[in-house]
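Researcher: Let's do a round of design. I'm pasting the C-alpha cells now; please hold your answer until I've finished.
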C-alpha cells in the first residue's frame, strides 16, 4: 500500500483517534454511586456501539470523562445517543507536552480554517502542569497562525465571535484536541433507576412518555392492549414497532412486550356501562392490568402518555375518576406538554412516522360519539359495582392469557 507524504507526516492517526464522552448529573453523586453509574454508562456505550456495528479498541473511564478509542467516523454520533451522555466530541489525543499539543492544534486548525475565516482556541486543563490553560491556548493560537500563514492563508483571531474554534482539553494523562461537540440526551444511564411498565399504544404520545422516563434511567416493559374486535388492524403493528424503536435506545438487552387481549373485558363491561363511560372504564382496566404486570415483573411504576386536556379521557376530572380508589404509582411525564412539543420529540426519537401511519380505519370502535369529559369522582367505582363479573378474576385471567413477545435488540 502506498502512503502519501501528507498522510505519513500527519499527527492524526487511527491510534490517537478518540471520542470524548461527557456526562452531567451523575457526576454530582457520591463516590460509590458515581462509580457504579459510570460503569453502567460505559457498558451502555459499548452496547450502543456494538448495536450500530461501530469498531473500537477500548472504552476507558478517567475522572469525569469516558474515552472511546475508535477511528470510526460514526462513533461519536452513536455514543451521543446513550442516555446519561451530555455531549461528545470526536478528538485526537497526544501527550500533555506543549510541543505536541501545539503541533496537533496547528494541523487540525489548518485543516478546518479556510482562508478569510477567523478562529479562536479554547483550552481547559486539569491536573498538574507547568503551564496554565491561557498560556497553552496562546501557544496553540500562535502555532495555528504560523501554519495558516505557511499555507498561504491570512490568519485572523476573533475571540468573541470566531468562524472556527479549536478546543484543547489538557489532562494529567494526556491531551485532546477537537473542533466539534455533539449534544447527547442527558439524563441517567439506562438501568440506574429500575424498571417501569409503560402503557404503550400505537399513538404519538405514549412512546414519547416512555422515552422521557428512559432518559432518566428507567428500563421499560411495554404493555399494549389489543382491544380485539374494537381495534383497527394497524394498531398493534404500530405499538410493536414503536416498542422496537424505543428498545433501540437501550440496546443489548433481552426485552419483552406484553400484548394484552381485553376483548372479553370490553364485551362484559359494555353490558352494564353506558357508552358515555366506556373510555373511562377501559382506561381503569388498563391501569389495573398494568399494576398486575408491574407486580409480576417486580417493576416500580406505570408510565402513560396522558397529556392534560388532550382528549376526553385526559381531563383532570376523568383522570381522577379513572384512578379513584386504586393505589398505583402512575407517572404521566407528558401531562404538561403541548402536542407540538410532543411531536417534536416523537420526530427526534424516531417514533412519529410509525405513530401517524393510518390505513383509514377507526383505531377504536368502542369510543362513543360523546364520551364523558367531566366524570364525577366516584363514576368509575359506581360502574364497577354494576359489573356482573368479578373484576379481580378478570384481571388475573387477562394477565395469565397475555402474549409475551420476547426479543433481543
Ligand atoms: P397515545 O397517543 O399515546 O396513543 P392517546 O392520545 O390515544 O394516546 P388515550 O387513548 O387517552 O390517548 O390514552 C392515554 C394513554 O393511555 C396513552 O398515552 C397510553 O399510555 C395509554 N393507552 C391508550 N390506549 C392504549 C393501548 N391500546 N394500549 C396501551 N396503552 C394505551
Ligand atoms: Mg394522546
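Researcher: That's everything. Go ahead.
Model: Designed sequence:
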Amino acid at each position: 500500500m502506498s502512503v502519501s507524504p501528507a498522510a505519513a507526516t500527519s499527527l492524526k492517526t487511527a491510534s490517537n483517534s478518540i471520542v470524548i464522552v461527557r456526562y452531567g448529573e451523575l457526576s454530582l453523586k457520591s463516590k460509590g454511586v458515581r462509580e457504579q453509574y459510570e460503569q453502567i454508562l460505559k457498558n451502555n456505550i459499548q452496547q450502543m456501539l456494538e448495536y450500530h456495528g461501530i469498531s473500537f479498541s477500548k472504552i476507558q473511564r478517567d475522572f469525569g470523562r469516558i474515552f472511546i478509542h475508535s477511528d470510526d467516523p460514526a462513533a461519536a454520533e452513536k455514543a451521543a445517543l446513550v442516555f446519561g451522555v451530555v455531549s461528545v466530541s470526536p478528538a485526537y489525543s497526544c501527550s500533555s507536552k506543549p510541543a505536541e499539543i501545539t503541533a496537533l492544534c496547528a494541523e487540525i486548525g489548518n485543516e478546518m480554517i479556510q482562508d478569510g475565516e477567523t478562529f479562536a482556541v479554547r483550552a481547559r486543563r486539569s491536573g498538574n502542569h507547568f503551564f496554565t490553560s491561557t498560556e497553552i491556548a496562546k501557544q496553540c493560537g500562535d502555532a495555528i497562525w504560523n501554519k495558516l500563514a505557511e499555507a498561504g492563508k491570512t490568519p485572523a483571531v476573533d475571540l468573541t465571535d470566531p468562524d472556527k474554534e479549536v478546543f484543547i482539553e489538557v489532562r494529567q494523562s494526556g491531551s485532546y484536541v477537537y473542533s466539534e461537540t455533539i449534544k447527547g440526551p442527558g439524563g441517567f444511564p439506562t438501568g440506574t433507576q429500575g424498571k417501569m411498565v409503560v402503557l404503550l399504544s400505537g399513538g404519538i404520545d405514549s412512546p414519547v412518555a416512555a422515552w422521557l422516563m428512559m432518559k432518566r434511567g428507567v428500563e421499560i416493559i411495554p404493555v399494549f392492549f389489543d382491544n380485539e374486535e374494537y381495534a383497527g388492524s394497524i394498531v398493534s403493528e404500530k405499538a410493536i414497532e414503536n416498542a422496537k424503536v424505543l428498545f433501540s435506545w437501550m440496546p443489548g438487552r433481552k426485552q419483552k412486550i406484553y400484548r394484552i387481549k381485553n376483548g372479553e373485558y370490553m364485551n362484559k363491561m359494555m353490558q352494564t356501562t353506558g357508552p358515555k363511560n366506556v373510555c373511562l372504564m377501559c382506561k381503569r382496566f388498563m391501569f389495573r392490568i398494568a399494576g398486575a404486570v408491574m407486580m409480576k415483573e417486580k417493576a416500580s411504576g406505570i408510565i402513560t402518555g396522558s397529556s392534560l386536556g388532550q382528549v376526553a379521557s385526559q381531563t383532570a376530572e376523568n383522570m381522577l375518576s379513572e384512578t379513584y380508589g386504586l393505589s398505583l404509582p402512575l407517572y404521566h411525564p407528558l401531562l404538561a406538554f403541548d402536542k407540538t412539543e410532543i411531536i417534536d420529540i416523537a420526530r427526534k426519537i424516531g417514533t412519529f412516522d410509525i405513530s401517524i401511519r393510518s390505513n383509514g380505519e377507526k383505531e377504536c370502535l368502542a369510543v362513543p360519539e360523546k364520551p364523558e369529559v367531566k366524570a364525577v369522582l366516584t363514576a368509575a367505582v359506581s360502574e364497577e359495582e354494576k359489573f356482573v363479573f368479578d373484576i379481580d378474576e378478570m384481571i388475573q385471567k387477562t394477565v395469565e392469557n397475555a402474549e409475551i413477545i420476547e426479543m433481543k435488540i
